[in-house]
Amino acid sequence: MRSKVTSVVFAALAALAFAALVVIPPATRLTVLDLEGRVVYDSDGANDSHADRVEFKSALAGKAGTVIRSSQTTHTELLYSAKRFGRYVIRLAIPCDSVLAPILMARFGFIVAGVLGALMAVLVLRFRRKIDTAKANEEFRRAFTANVTHELRTPLTSILGAAEMLNDGSALTSDERDELVGIIRDQSTRLDVLSKDILVLARLEGAEAAREMNRETVSCRQLGERVHALVRLKAKMLGVTVALEVEDLSVCGDRKLLEEALLNLVENALRYSGSEKIVLRIASEGNRVVFSVIDYGIGIAAEHLPRLFERFYRVDKARSRSLGGTGLGLAIVKHIVQLHQGEVFVTSRPGDQTVFGFKL
């Protein structure tokens, strides 16, 4: 972090030097000193100590470090102005003579005060935002790691427990062995699904995700029919009817990602809603296309709606795990939609109707 701060400080100083040189003589000298008076940077390449210079002492004391004197390096009459900023003192020196000195001093003071003030304000705001972002990212990483660890622990514990019983199970019956093998198989499948969802989410959140998208014109009818075909057998096994209502529309986007988003929404309804009928609807709304999955099941209480697209958020944790959910499906939908510059939404009237969807 310190190296980044130093780089930005020097970049700002370079910008300041450029701005100053536009309006003051080209022989202007820029020097950056540490609090001991040692040279950190000097535009003339000098590296002698400045600890005894009047302007440096004044800047350290918090006073206006502006003075006219002969340079100990160039032996010419110069106007010096120094000001302390945190762990550094910034000093500018410009040539002057006795006639122009008052005018130059006034102009130099206003220029330095204005430019340095503006630059330092920008730097402070910029680094404050960076610090806030870094803190938020660190909190997110900790929460995400804790959630992943928790999600992995349950199936791993079940697998290890069943394996130990099988390993030391001379007195087990055939049915008991089959049950333990079933536990290992089911929990291994759960781990496999969870690991795949985590990898998908990591890919979608990566910096390269937007550049790797395969943007094309996607037929909404073909997209809807494809998703409908993928869920039809599973829905039939569950005794659920999935109706398809699609207008003749098209959108620009990544066909596979949009298919994954819609598929996640339909499977979410199949898994949790308890509805005997689900409607997959794609329709226009003004100049936007709305993708909706509607169910008529148990519904969701209002207090849960704002958090449903968060990672690992579940309305009923025990029921979600028993039904095989990872808690990442809706988060994946949200990130896919964000990559398409769209927005997700959910509405619900418990016992009546719930709608999950997104707009592009």
Question: How would you characterize this protein structure?
Answer:
The protein is an alpha+beta fold. It has nine helices and twelve strands. It has a five-stranded antiparallel beta sheet, sandwiched between helices. The longest helix is centred in the middle third of the chain and has 67 residues, at 101-167. The radius of gyration is 33 Å and the shape is elongated. The two termini are 39 Å apart. Residues 17-24 have low confidence and may be disordered.
Quickly list its features.
single chain, 360 residues, alpha+beta, Beta-Lactamase, Helix Hairpins, Heat Shock Protein 90, 5-stranded antiparallel sheet, 5-stranded mixed sheet, 9 helices, 12 strands, 51% helix
What is the gist of this entry?
The protein is an alpha+beta fold and 360 residues long. It is 51% helix and 22% strand.
